[in-house]
Specification:
The complex is a heterodimer of chains A (471) and B (85). Chain A has 18 helices and 23 strands. Chain A is an alpha/beta fold and 471 residues long. In chain B, strands 1-3-2 form a three-stranded antiparallel sheet. In chain B, helix 1 packs across helix 3 (38-50) and helix 2 packs across helix 3 (38-50). Chain B is globular. Classes of the chains: A alpha/beta (471), B alpha+beta (85). The A-B interface holds A 61-63, 80, 86-91, 93-94, 97-98, 105 and B 16, 19-26, 28-29, 33, 57, 62, 64. The structure holds adenosine-5'-diphosphate and magnesium ion.
């Protein structure tokens, strides 16, 4: 029988979960999320599987843990009132004594709530229980493991990283039925990567490798290192909107989700021209109608040159009413484009709002084809103000979703400030980030509708379409 | 003065056990957790035990204290002892 860990990705790594009754060591440096993972194991066990749990904390006060775990929306006190959970503050020597004692406190606690899962945070302190070097600490852990097994409890033993000799396999790993290791690594000096690795688990297959995880508002989220997750989404191709950048599509599980709003977060040094060009070209080829908000730097002439590069005749598309433009700068446009360019420079914010709501809505609804929109949000910030953006953006994204129009929004998160950026990030379904560091440009998927994120990739120029590649 | 200090340490212990109903701790453990001397803690914990607020289990160094069921002390009021802010 397998016990779900409360983390979907980890259950997959463990081929279903931890074999019931196992004692598993969970190790990592401070701040890697051990306490969070341990509590998530208990919390989800209670909420999703009706399995009561006990958390033993040697260093932290229980009330600190109640408080910390609120950050994930977990109301631990409520579960204690329902006799499903206990957060026990105790010294290691007392716990040990009460575990060994006949009808001791440990047995009483397990019986009182019919406990199925326990977490001990952390077993590192058992080591200090003896005066003799090492030996005693080891035999203590052995005793503890036998006792929790006797009660049939599935347990996590948290172990603080000791920075000791890494070439030797620690004694705990021999005693435990399983070992889960959390690490925090520097990645290219610009990004810290959290990884989880299962190095041992008796009685189950494991997916080897370092799997990336994130600590989110709802606890630990694990992404599998293998292709498995990606492959599953790729089979779902009809719902996916290709970007024309193969690696990006694969990171997105096949492409952008139809009707979703994606943010491309750039900094001023980053060149995003080819990203945008590749996506436009791909969308045109797929037969989409396109609505494009022109920026102050991107003129029609410039866009025309960019599309030429991808073999797209934008002139033709504009005349056929397949490519529409929203223009804020009153710049000239080629003859024959009259019906395709909306000049909005003289519109006040209310009028502009009305224009989007009426003119654009009927345009999109009257043409029962798939639409793709490119929206340069910096232009709206500059021309209409931050307040307008914050007020209208959520409405606009909801509208796009309702008509199934996929949207790429260009924005510079640094420039718009932390608050606006976090609002925009929350409102978008997905976020791609591109930035320059030293002489390299990077790109990373930091948010996507199915929860997948990527590591940062180098963005390399190539001399064929789509002229860029993620490596 | 002596009494005031005594009261504040008593308050500290009381609040600690109230907000941590599942804290099971020895005097030595509390010394570490609270950063207070064992010799100061001992009479207070014994006092709270005698009043029925805490429960003491075991003897000697391994004797541990815990908070007793709130229902038992529901009437207990200490707010009058609090110093105004
Ligand atoms: N809602 C949240 N979103 C993201 N990170 C969070 C959230 N709440 C807490 N954290 C971070 O999670 C990290 C892990 O904490 P913790 O589980 O206590 O690690 P450990 O027990 O390994 O020291 C902390 O560094 C904390 O800043
Ligand atoms: Mg911790």
């Amino acid at each position: 029988m397998k016990v779900s860990t409360g983390i979907r990705g980890l259950d997959k790594v463990l081929d279903g979960g931890i074999p019931q009754g196992s004692a598993v060591v969970l190790e990592g440096a401070p701040g890697t999320g051990k306490t969070t993972l341990g509590m998530q194991f208990l919390y989800k066990g209670i909420v999703d599987h009706n399995e009561p749990g006990i958390f033993f904390t040697f260093e932290e006060f229980p009330d600190q843990i109640y408080e910390d775990m609120k950050s994930y929306g977990w109301d631990l006190k409520d579960l204690e009132r329902k006799n499903m959970l206990r957060v026990i503050g105790i010294s290691p020597d007392i716990l040990l004594e009460q575990m060994v004692a006949n009808d001791g406190l440990f047995e009483q606690l397990v019986r009182e709530i019919d406990g199925k899962r326990i977490v001990i945070d952390s077993i590192s302190l058992f080591e200090y229980l003896s005066n003799e070097a090492g030996e005693k600490g080891r035999s203590i852990l052995y005793t503890v493991r036998n006792i929790v097994r006797k009660f049939g409890l599935t347990s996590l033993f948290i172990q603080e990283d000791d920075n000791l000799d890494k070439s030797k396999i620690p004694f705990e790993h021999f005693i435990a039925d399983g070992v889960i290791r959390l690490s925090l690594k520097e990645h290219m000096n610009i990004y810290r990567k959290r990884t989880l690795e299962v190095t041992k688990m008796r009685g189950t297959k494991i997916k080897e490798g370092e799997h990336i995880y994130q600590i989110t508002d709802s606890g630990i989220y694990l992404l599998l290192a293998s292709q498995i997750v990606t492959d599953k989404y790729i089979s779902d191709n009809n719902e996916k909107i290709k970007t024309g950048i193969p690696k990006l599509d694969s990171l997105l599980g096949g492409g952008m989700a139809k009707g979703a709003v994606y943010m491309l977060d750039t900094n001023s040094k980053a060149n995003y021209r080819h990203i945008v060009g590749a996506i436009y070209a791909e969308r045109v080829k797929a037969g989409n109608r396109i609505l494009s908000l022109l920026s102050s730097t991107q003129t029609i002439t410039e866009l025309k040159a960019l599309m030429d590069l991808y073999g797209i005749n934008i002139d033709q598309l504009a005349k056929e009413k397949r490519f529409y433009f929203i223009e804020h700068y009153n710049r000239p446009f080629p003859a024959g484009w009259e019906g395709s360019v909306f000049q909005v420079q003289d519109m006040k914010n209310e009028e502009y709002d009305l224009f989007l709501r009426e003119k654009c809505t009927s345009l999109i609804k009257d043409n029962h084809e798939d639409w793709f929109a490119y929206y340069d949000l910096s232009t709206i910030f500059n021309e209409r103000g931050a307040e307008y953006v914050l007020r209208s953006f959520a409405k606009e994204t909801a509208f796009a979703r309702s008509v199934g129009m996929t949207v790429l929004v260009l924005c510079n998160f640094k420039e718009v400030g932390v608050q606006a950026a976090s609002f925009l990030e929350r409102t978008s379904n997905g976020v791609f980030k591109t930035w320059v560091d030293g002489s390299y440009q990077y790109m990373q998927v930091t948010k996507s509708p199915d929860g997948q994120i990527s590591k940062p990739y180098l963005l390399e120029s190539i001399d064929q379409k789509p002229y860029i590649r993620l490596v | 003065m002596v009494k005031r200090e005594h009261l504040s340490l008593e308050m500290e212990c009381l609040t600690l056990f109230q907000s941590n109903p599942y804290l099971f701790e020895t005097i030595q453990g509390l010394e570490k957790r609270l950063g207070r001397r064992m010799s100061d803690l001992e009479p207070i914990l014994e006092g709270l035990t005698a009043q029925g607020i805490l429960q003491k289990t075991g003897e000697g160094a391994l004797a541990y204290f815990r908070y007793k069921e709130p229902a038992v002390i529901a009437e207990f009021s200490f707010t009058s002892e609090l110093e105004p802010l």
